[in-house]
């Protein structure tokens, strides 16, 4: 089952096939009803014969109920989107292996990442065993529920912005012709799904739309959103969104790169808080010795979350600060070292050389480190974030992306080209400025947050 259907089934209890069947039943019933009406108009005497035939009167009554039921169900789901959290267990169950089973069992990551995995796995089991009871069970797992809610709220602006564009596009829909595909490409490019993705999608849709014989507005909407969601799902089959940790007792090192103001220091502060709360020994390294104030900013975060910072004077060689930090992390048995770096130097080449040097220093001391080179991108900058990612990726071995400032941004759709065109996994998402506002990236919840009305409400 594709992601579109998994989300749909999770929130409405039925997939596209079931939906289609109901639609057909409904149309059949309506057809039958109008045929019956015509018959009864034709002849008053026939009317008595019809009502006497039990088989016919049954078919007239039964399907009517089938049609009414789902409509009501869908209404409820649309009105209270955050409620059916228990139902999200199903898509998560389908996708979990791709995301989390690859994590090495012995690594410390077990303590952070798999917390969710275990929770989701046990939820899945419960789901198959006791679907009826799960509503009350979910209330005992507020963390999961809050997580969905945060994605839901954080992506509201992105969702509304795409939804508004999409509705305008649908309002103009007359028939599936060349103008339709031109408008579709424009819509997708405007919506930041990425140029290549937009063209690929519209090409694939040409075929699919023909095959599926799309005529109605709701069909068009369904086919487009399904394709968008399933293409994203498909492109991510090999993607591992979990953070990697040291496989032995040596410290794990995460190196943070990205342009000024993207949110590196804030993300480091949030992560330090997370691992500190989990009982890990965390050290920060102030590797941005270039920007005035950057060291103090990191030290301020260190004080807030009660984590030490290895720092030196401004303008010192950042590689030497990082060297000191690695030595300290090894000698004092730290679990995690988070390294801040400069977002800008005199020129791009200089910056990239500096990053390479920092990386070499780390690897010389700890051959398996850094376990992650995390590129921090300001998610609210849309296409700009995408081109930054392309540039960084050309010169630095980026292992994952942190997408910040998704809260209040209308550019959440940027996750689509990041995956479809760059193939770098998003690993963390910033959903606010506070220390708790950082989430492990969950592609399914993110996609639900982006398109929920268009998926859940599709075909209605
Ligand atoms: N709303 C929101 N704001 C964020 C988020 N992450 C960071 N910010 C804000 O973005 C601004 C810049 O963040 P920094 O962490 O200083 O960015 P930086 O990449 O370290 O910047 P430099 O130190 O200049 O290289 C700050 O005001 C943060 O509070 C987020 O997820 N959501």
TrEMBL record:
* Residues of the SRP54-type proteins GTP-binding domain: 425-438
Q: Which InterPro entries match?
A: AAA+_ATPase, P-loop_NTPase, Signal_recog_particl_SRP54_hlx, SR_rcpt_FtsY, SRP/SRP_N, SRP54_GTPase_dom, SRP54_N_sf
Mention any one GO cellular component term assigned to this protein in its UniProt record: plasma membrane
Task: Give a yes or no for keyword Transmembrane in this entry.
Answer: no
Q: Where does the chain bind GTP? A: 258-265, 340-344, 404-407
Q: How does it sit in the membrane?
A: Peripheral membrane protein
The listed locations are: Cell membrane; Cytoplasm
Question: Acidic residues bias located where?
Answer: 30-44, 100-145
Assigned keywords, A-Z: Cell membrane, Cytoplasm, GTP-binding, Hydrolase, Membrane, Nucleotide-binding, Receptor
Q: What is its EC number?
A: 3.6.5.4
Which reaction equation describes what this protein catalyses?
Answer: GTP + H2O = GDP + phosphate + H(+)
Its main localization is membrane
**What family is it from?**
Belongs to the GTP-binding SRP family. FtsY subfamily.
Please give the name of this protein: Signal recognition particle receptor FtsY
Q: Which organism is it from?
A: Companilactobacillus nodensis DSM 19682 = JCM 14932 = NBRC 107160
Query: What lineage does UniProt assign to this protein's organism?
Result: Bacteria, Bacillati, Bacillota, Bacilli, Lactobacillales
What gene does this protein come from? ftsY
């Amino acid at each position: 089952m594709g992601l579109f259907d998994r989300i749909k089934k999770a929130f409405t209890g039925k997939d596209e096939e079931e939906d289609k069947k109901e639609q057909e039943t409904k149309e059949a019933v309506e057809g039958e009803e109008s045929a019956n009406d015509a018959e009864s108009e034709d002849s008053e005497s026939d009317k008595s014969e019809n009502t006497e035939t039990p088989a016919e009167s049954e078919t007239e009554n039964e399907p009517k109920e089938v049609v009414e039921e789902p409509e009501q169900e869908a209404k409820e789901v649309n009105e209270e989107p955050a409620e059916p959290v228990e139902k999200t267990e199903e898509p998560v169950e389908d996708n979990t292996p791709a995301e989390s089973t690859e994590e090495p069992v012995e690594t410390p990551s077990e303590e952070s990442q798999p917390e969710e995995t275990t929770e989701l796995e046990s939820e899945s089991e419960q789901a198959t065993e006791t679907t009826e009871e799960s509503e009350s069970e979910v209330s005992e797992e507020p963390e999961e529920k809050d997580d969905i809610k945060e994605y839901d709220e954080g992506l509201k602006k992105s969702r509304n912005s795409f939804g508004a564009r999409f509705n305008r596009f649908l309002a103009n829909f007359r028939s599936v012709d060349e103008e339709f595909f031109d408008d579709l490409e424009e819509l997708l490019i405007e919506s930041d799904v990425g140029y290549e993705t937009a063209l690929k999608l519209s090409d694939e849709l040409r075929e699919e739309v023909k095959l599926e014989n799309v005529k109605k507005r709701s069909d068009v909407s369904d086919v487009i959103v399904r394709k968008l969601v399933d293409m994203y799902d498909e492109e991510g089959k090999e993607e591992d969104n979990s953070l990697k940790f040291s496989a032995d007792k040596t410290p794990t090192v995460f190196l943070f790169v990205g342009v000024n103001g993207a949110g590196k220091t804030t993300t480091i502060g949030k992560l330090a808080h997370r691992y500190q709360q989990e009982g890990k020994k965390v050290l920060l390294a102030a590797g941005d010795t270039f920007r005035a104030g950057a060291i103090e900013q990191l030290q301020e975060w260190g004080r807030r979350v009660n984590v030490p910072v290895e720092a030196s004077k401004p303008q010192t060689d950042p590689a030497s600060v990082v060297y000191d930090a690695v030595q300290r992390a090894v000698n004092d048995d730290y679990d995690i070292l988070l390294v801040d770096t400069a977002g800008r130097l005199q020129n791009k080449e200089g910056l990239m050389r500096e990053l390479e040097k920092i990386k070499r220093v780390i690897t010389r001391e700890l051959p398996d480190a850094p376990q992650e080179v995390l590129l921090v991108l300001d998610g609210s900058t849309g296409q700009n974030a995408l081109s930054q990612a392309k540039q960084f990726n050309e010169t630095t071995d980026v292992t994952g992306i942190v997408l910040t400032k998704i809260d209040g941004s209308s550019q959440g759709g940027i996750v689509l080209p990041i995956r479809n065109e760059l193939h770098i996994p998003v690993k963390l998402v910033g959903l606010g400025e506070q220390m708790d506002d950082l989430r492990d990236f969950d592609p399914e919840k993110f996609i639900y947050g982006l398109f929920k009305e268009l998926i859940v409400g599709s075909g209605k």
